[in-house]
Amino acid sequence: MKTKIQEINNNSITNMTKKCFQMAILLLLSFTSIQAQDKKAKDLLNQVTAKIKSYDNISIDFKYSLNNAKENINQDSKGNVIMKGNQYVLNFMGVTKIFDGQKTYTINPEDEEVTISKVNEKDDNAITPSKMLTFFNSGYKYNMDIVQNIKGRKIQYIKLAPTNTKDQRKEILLGIDVQTKHIYNLIETGKNGTKTTLTVNSFKTNQPLSKNQFTFVASKYPKYYINKLD
């Protein structure tokens, strides 16, 4: 015959077992939910990548904002870029960069200088405008975030967290137009509190380009100092 103490102990064990079982179920459901979210995020990112790769060329006008409340920094700039494959012409903050597939030509009108350097496109650390549209394919954990209605457009945000602990960025929010699968904006938050936002104002594809669109013509800059780094 069981004693009162044994009954209490047995009831405690039974209750604890139930709680552990319930907790295990909750953890399993939470994990499944996160996995489902990750899959949704991955599927959407794959659609964005496929869309980008389907175009012969892309022309983008963008706005770039840099903010740090602690340092009282608020800076806005505009720019534009034309891309075809790995070639591009980028105009930003008064400087023009041309990459013809082998070399980068940085044209600085203020200094009247052209800097020429080679770029190893196979280098994962080499940052180019084309990579900026597909940078999220490696080196990040991601999950679905909020959905916003911006000027009649449904923007789905995906939160990306760098897997490299040395990365100075805390997180990135990537806004994607659900209908077009184009990137609308990119919001980076640094570990030091700096917040940078790149917003796409105009996104055009398969535009007619000149044969010399990505060719540096030295004769256009007769008074410029040519600085060859390689």
UniProtKB/TrEMBL annotation:
Pfam families: LolA. InterPro entries: LolA/LolB/LppX, OM_lipoprot_carrier_LolA-like. Residues 1-36 form the signal peptide. Keywords: Lipoprotein, Signal. SUPFAM superfamilies: Prokaryotic lipoproteins and lipoprotein localization factors (SSF89392). The keyword Metal-binding does not apply. This is Outer membrane lipoprotein-sorting protein. It comes from Flavobacterium saccharophilum.
